Structures are given as structure tokens and as C-alpha cells.
Amino acid sequence: MKILGIIPARGGSKGIPGKNIKLLGNKPLLEYTVDSVSSSKFLDRCILSSDDDNIIQVAQKLGLEVPFKRPSNLAGDNIFSLDVIKHTLDFFEAKNEYFDVVCFLQVTSPFREKSLIDKAILKFKESEADCLISVREVPVEYNPHWTFEPDETNLLQIATGESEIISQRQKLPKAYHRDGSIYLTKTSVIKNQNSLYGKKISFIDTTGSSYVNIDEPEDWEKAEKILKWIE
Questions:
Q1: Is the pTM of this model over 0.85?
Q2: Residue 113's CB: how many other CB atoms inside 10 A?
């Protein structure tokens, strides 16, 4: 199983200007993901996909491979991650280099446990899943079995479709949300199903570890607080 790591990092962030290379603590945000990659034994190759010269320069100084500059038509706010991945795969396939699996690592999730990537890869190899994603438990008060949505008459219905609400929290099934730290997907699923997930989704639970997904200034402030706590 040949695995390609892809780190996306476009320029033009509006919420936090220059976010991907802004200093968090004493190093650029990008470096936290590069450090995670450096500790992996199972990634065959890892590259940066970016449209921004400054980000590319920082990445190269960190020793990250940058085989191309992402075209501007794949750098806007409305570009899907899947398009970035497919562009990367097409680039390598044009050079007769093929990968079985893509490991997609977002810079905005900097606090991965040191062994997370390899633990995820091992679990994915053992599964028959199309993809594996990192997740965290949904707090019980937000469990989908305890949430509601309005129907066509503007009356509330249980979001999961049951006619009666589960009254005891102990009986609630676990629910998870994506945390954005890692996505592992078979290349065949990406190419043939045009999907990052496919139909069979495995997961690795990161509940309890340090976590932030940086999008807005308040997320950056949270990251700074976490960094002080874990150092």
C-alpha cells in the first residue's frame, strides 16, 4: 500500500491573514503538521499543495517537498479539498507515479499526537474501509438523538427520526464529529467515486487529546492557550 501525504495550504486566508505560516508559539503553523509527518514511518511521500510563494518558501525551508505550485483556479474560498487532491494525483500520474491511498493533513489542526498518523494508517490497513477519518465524541447535550429540527408545520421532530426521545443519557449511542486532523482515502474511491469518503468509513478517536481547528481569530487564541498548557 503506497501512501501519499498531502498538506494543503493556500494563501488568501480572510479570517486570519497569513494563517498557514503565522507564528504559533515560536514556529509557523505549518511546521506543526510537518513535524507530525516527520514522525511517521508509513507515509511513502508527503508534499505541500499551495498557490502562495511565501508558504512555499517556508515549506521548503522546513524540508517539505513542493513539486508544483497550485494553479490559481484551485485556490479560491469555494474550492473543495477533493479538487486539490485530484489535481495532486493527476500531477503524479502524468509522471507515471501512482499511489494507493491519500493521507490528507490540514494545517489548521496542529495538535496531533505524535503517533496519530501511523496509528490511523495501521487501523486503515486492517480495515476494509474506503476511508478513515479522525473524530471526537460529540458532547452528550449535542448528541443527535437529543437534537431537534422543525418539520413542514414548524413543529419540532427528533433529528434522528425516532418517535420518542431517549430519556436516559446512559442509553444514548456514541456520536462523533470530524476533527479535521487526518483523512485517509483509497485513491480508487477518489478517482472512481469522486468522493473523499466512499461508502465504508472507518475512524480513529482523538477524544481527550489537545484539539483545535483554526478558522477564526478566537480559534487562534484557543490554540495559543493549548500551547502554553502542553509545553
A1: yes
A2: 14
